[in-house]
Design a protein that fits this description.
By secondary structure, the protein is an alpha/beta fold. The chain is built from twelve helices and 14 strands. The protein folds into two domains: 250 residues, P-loop containing nucleotide triphosphate hydrolases (Rossmann fold, 3-Layer(aba) Sandwich), CATH 3.40.50; 67 residues, Alpha-Beta Plaits (2-Layer Sandwich). 33% of the residues lie in helices and 24% in strands. The strands form three sheets. It has a six-stranded mixed beta sheet with strand order 6-7-8-3-9-10, sandwiched between helices. A four-stranded antiparallel beta sheet has the order 2-1-4-5, with helices on one face. It starts with a helix and ends with a helix. The structure holds adenosine-5'-triphosphate (ATP).
Length: 338
């Protein structure tokens, strides 16, 4: 959240996106998206494949919600059902308070980038936005501000075909913001970008979240989303592994006590000693790893230290480690079995 606010402070002064009407955007208790039992099965009979499996989730209004999962997890399919592009096999829900079964009732308030940046290659960035504004019945006066917002203020007169992939993606996001949507759905906007492009994209997504807008953004890289998302949905093989505040996901990670004997020949004795006090103790490299799923990991570290001293084992290293978000995510994704 703090980093997201920091990105906001870099918003150009010239930003002219109209702020949303608070009466319609911050209704306490009304989520931006709410689905129950959302399922998509492709094919029939023995060839049937369920790629989105009874998903139930909510995205609160005004958050940046990250949708993370490996390739093929079902992120695009889920987003496409919210956009009325894919008909769910089962499930109900609402988007911006309107029924999922009636996309026409809410799509006018939703902007999206779902299938890569496809705009007219021969038109300039500005012409593209103006043409889309005319087609969509949106106010073209927002175009210069949107170009500024996406960092294309000085490239708006260049043709789309001359843009780098990152610039194309950013212009497509400007296009999605025409009409000042309450909900912005972005499917893998960082896909294919280099690290600088990814950083620019993160900053843009954080900026686009201003004014109470809800952003639902997917990536197969958790590290890409972690910095800008208040809310996280973790998907693997069509099944939701986590939904909730980003910080809550990390809080689930099991801390570990790591101890290394000064004398390598003491390692097996140290492992035996640690096993007396914990489950799943393992030797790793030159030390011992003790997961502490419950209780106080520091107290376990102190107990290990005391026991080692009692056995005459001198420790070279003793630390409490908490897996970082990426490591926890990988453990979750690899650990899920169906
Ligand atoms: N029209 C379709 N017919 C059959 N299978 C499909 C269809 N569309 C998607 N799938 C399959 O559904 C699964 C989920 O795909 P989806 O694109 O939703 O995942 P994803 O998480 O967005 O992955 P990626 O990051 O690779 O795009 C994949 O195995 C894909 O092959």
């Amino acid at each position: 959240m703090r980093r997201r606010e920091a990105a906001h402070t870099r918003t150009p002064e010239t930003l002219t996106i109209a702020t949303l009407d608070p009466m319609t955007t911050t209704i306490p208790g009304t989520p931006a998206v709410s689905v129950t039992g959302l399922t998509k099965t492709y094919g029939r009979g023995s060839g049937a494949r369920t790629v989105v499996d009874a998903l139930s989730f909510e995205i609160p209004r005004g958050v940046v919600a990250g949708f993370v999962g490996p390739n093929g997890a079902g992120k695009t399919t889920t987003m496409a059902t919210l956009l009325g592009l894919v008909r769910p096999t089962a499930g109900t829900g609402t988007v911006l308070g309107a029924p999922l079964a009636d996309p026409g009732a809410y799509l006018g308030r939703v902007g999206a980038l779902i299938d890569g940046p496809t705009l007219w290659p021969g038109l300039t960035g500005e012409q593209n936005l103006r043409a889309l504004a005319a087609l969509g019945g949106h106010d073209a006066a927002a175009v210069p501000g949107l170009l500024e917002l996406v960092g294309l203020g000085d490239r708006g007169r260049d043709r789309f075909r001359s843009y780098s992939l990152g610039m194309k993606q950013r212009l497509a996001i400007a296009a999605a913001l025409l009409g000042d949507p309450e909900l912005l759905i972005l499917d893998e906007p960082s896909n294919g970008l280099d690290p600088v492009g990814m950083r620019d994209m993160r900053e843009l997504v954080a900026r686009a979240a201003g004014g109470g807008r809800t952003v639902f953004v997917s990536s197969h890289l958790l590290g890409d989303l972690e910095q800008i998302c208040d809310w996280l949905l973790v998907l693997d093989r069509g099944v939701l592994l986590y939904q909730g505040p980003t910080a809550g996901f990390l809080a689930q990670a099991v801390p570990q006590v790591f101890a290394t004997p000064a004398d390598a020949t003491d390692l097996s004795r140290l492992v035996e000693l640690a096993k007396r006090g914990g489950e799943d103790v393992s030797a790793t490299g030159d030390g011992v790893l003790i997961p502490v799923p419950r209780g106080d990991a520091r107290a376990v570290a102190v107990a290990v230290n005391r026991a080692a001293i009692g056995e005459g084992i001198v420790l070279a290293e003793l630390a409490v480690r908490r897996p970082d978000l990426e490591a926890h995510y990988l453990a979750q994704v690899e650990g899920s079995s169906r």
